[in-house]
Amino acid sequence: MICVMPNITNQPDSLLIRQAEWLSRYQYSLRLSEQGTVISVGDGIAWINGLPSACMDEVVQLEDGSSALVFHLAHDRLGAILLHQTGQLTAGTQAFLTGNRLSIGVGDALLGRVIDPLGIPLDSAGSISFSTYRFMDVRSPPIIARDFVAQPLYTGNKIIDTMIPMGKGQRQLIVGDNGSGKSTLAIDTVINQHEKNVYCIYVLIGQKRSTVVSVIETLRRYGALAYTVVVVAEATAMPGLKYLAPFAGCTVAEAWMAAGRDTLVVYDDLSTHARSYRELSLLLRRPPGREAYPGDIFYLHSRLLERSTRLSAKQGGGSMTALPIVETEQGEIAAYIPTNLISITDGQIYFDRQLFARGFLPAIDVTRSVSRIGGKAQHAAIKKEAGRMKLDYLQFLELEVFTRFGSKLEASMEERIKRGQILREILKQDQLSPQSVEFQMAWLVAYNEGLFDNLDVNQIRAHLMHLQKQVTNTRLNIDQGRDQWKALIRAWLK
Q1: What are the b/e assignments for 171-210, b being 16+ CB within 10 Å?
Q2: Does residue 313 register a pLDDT over 50?
Q3: Backbone dihedral angles phi then psi of residue 64, each to the nearest 5 degrees
Q4: Dist. CA 449–CA 483, nearest whole Å
Q5: Between helices 411-427 and 437-448, what is the axis angle to 10°?
Q6: What average pLDDT does range 39-66 have in this prediction?
Q7: Which residues carry the site feature described as Required for activity (predicted)?
Q8: DSSP type of residue 148
Q9: Which of 12, 93, 153, 332 is the 20 to 30 A CA-CA neighbour of 352?
Q10: Mind giving me the DSSP string for 440-489?
Q11: % helix / strand / coil in the chain, to the nearest 5?
Q12: Domain identity same for 335 and 402
């Protein structure tokens, strides 16, 4: 046998070493490859005969150029979800194993880009050059690699930053009916990360194209697209891509977290994701469970959200904060998917349609919202000023019920009700207008000092706008003494 050696006289030293190592390991042997055949294809699923060595989550390459992911193993065939489908894919097409797991390109090259769950750009900014790839579905960081949530992540929302605080590395569920303002809050949170050194990933799952375009244009208009990656699997996409979308966004964020950066991931929304997974499972003839969802639907979302955490200093100290969104029907928070996600996450922000109808925006129901670990990450000054405000506000909501019966109340009760009405007016906030933490501190001090008590409820908005303008024009530090805050705010509201 004649062996033709490549010309290596002018090759770099590193290449010579690699070639020498390859030659030292090379062995003459019989090489075998498996070949399967597509039995049927439809609804984003391909049934393949053959390929006995196939593994779960292995990428299968089809003869026509299509690709699929092994998702179901039976004794006589395998089911694969299509990732890319050409018009020539039919029964009888040959299939080949690649031995590869599904991965996606990661890195700073993704900032400002719109991609699909496979990392293919959907915008008009050209191709993306990746230097690093990561597997999409991996295990979450072990306990010893994690650290406590101790740094605040500000959303710019008055209610959340004061009464339902969030920390970097937290998983906070946003739950409510369709059209109640859940996505608006998520977009506000992304916009509020401007100049805060937080990279954002916004995952759109099964949304209409008009919604996708609206989100992208909003982020671009407010300068948030520069530090954001948008992962899109729109409503017309194959169910396999909708299933992979949140894992793709999580993988992109995980790469930055491993590099020591702080990240924020929005999953909009996991209700659609669960329905896509149910569709795939039923098409693959898996046994249905409650509400026809497969039995591992809880594991599906838990293995996704458990990857969000704050890493220890030895691991770089990065963090991934997750804002999963889930939709309810008629405010039924005890439905199957919402209760699953509530048990997985570290708290929930509940949007109430009745509050929305009454004009209280954002329509966050404080009585049903909670942040289990965010209080430990809240800034000490904000935490001290907020104090018992949430409890007082809840008591006001109960006392207000008695006013509907026209009963005469004591003077102290009337005073508490008036302060509660003032606080409710303060907590109202327009969409796409996140507030700075300095302004949050300013209105808290003003409210606690009773500087709004003598005002009519209709005057609160004007005074808040004046206060916000003064805070914006003045260089303030949230750590400065409370007496300084009091003096400044009294002068501004005089």
Answers
A1: bbbbbbbeebbbbebbbbbbbbbeeeebbbbbbbbbbeee
A2: yes
A3: -80, 0
A4: 11
A5: 170
A6: 92
A7: 369
A8: -
A9: 153
A10: HHHHHHHHHTTTTTTS-GGGHHHHHHHHHHHHHHS---TTS-HHHHHHHH
A11: 40, 20, 40
A12: no
Give the pLDDT band of residue 11 (cuts 50, 70, 90).
very low
Residue 14 confidence class, pLDDT cut points 50, 70, 90: low
- Measured N-to-C along each axis, helices 482-492 and 460-473 cross at an angle, to the nearest 10 degrees, of 120
**Average confidence (pLDDT) over 242-259:** 97
- Cα 57-279-255 angle, rounded to 5 deg: 40
What HEC string does 241-305 produce? HHHHHHHHHHHHHHHHHHCCCEEEEEEECHHHHHHHHHHHHHHCCCCECHHHCECCHHHHHHHHH
Residues 89 and 133 in one domain: no
| Rounded distance between C-alpha atoms, residue 76 and residue 281, angstroms | 18
Asked if 249 and 255 count as a contact pair (C-beta separation under 8 A), the reply is no
CA-based radius of gyration for the chain: 27
Q: Is the peptide bond before 324 cis (omega within 30 degrees of 0)?
A: no
pLDDT digits (tens, 9 = 90+) for 159-181: 999 999 999 999 999 999 998 99
Which residues are within 8 A (CB) of 450 and not within 5 positions of it... i.e. 6 or more apart?
none
User: Is residue 348 over pLDDT 70?
Assistant: yes
Quick check: 50 and 41 in contact, CB under 8 A? Answer: no
Give me the pLDDT at residue 8, please: 40
CATH of the domain at 439: 1.20.150.20
pTM of the model: 0.91
**pLDDT 10s digits, 463-480:** 999 999 999 888 888 888
* Sign (positive or negative) of CA dihedral 330, 335, 336, 341: positive
The answer to the question of residue 28 being in a domain is no
Tell me 404's DSSP state: T
- What whole-number distance in Å separates Cα of residue 251 and Cα of residue 205? 16
Predicted confidence (pLDDT) at residue 7 exceeds the cutoff of 60:
no
pLDDT score, position 25: 78
Domain boundary among 52, 69, 101: 101
Let me know whether 418 and 373 are in one domain.
no
Give the model confidence (pLDDT) of 404-446 as tens digits: 766 677 777 888 888 999 999 999 999 899 999 999 999 999 9
7 falls within a domain: no
Whether residue 23 lies inside any domain: the answer is no
Whole domain around residue 77: which residue ranges? 35-101
Specify whether 321 is located in the same domain as 262.
yes
Same domain, 80 and 112: no
> Residue 479 has which token pair?
């750590």
Q: Give me the active site residues, please.
A: 372
**Distance from C-alpha of 127 to C-alpha of 313, rounded to nearest angstrom:** 35
Q: Which residues of 80-107 are buried (b: 16+ CB within 10 A; e: fewer)?
A: bbbbbbeeebeeebebebeeeebbbbbb
Residue 6 lies in a domain: no
At residue 176, the pLDDT reads: 95
Residues 419 and 320 in one domain: no
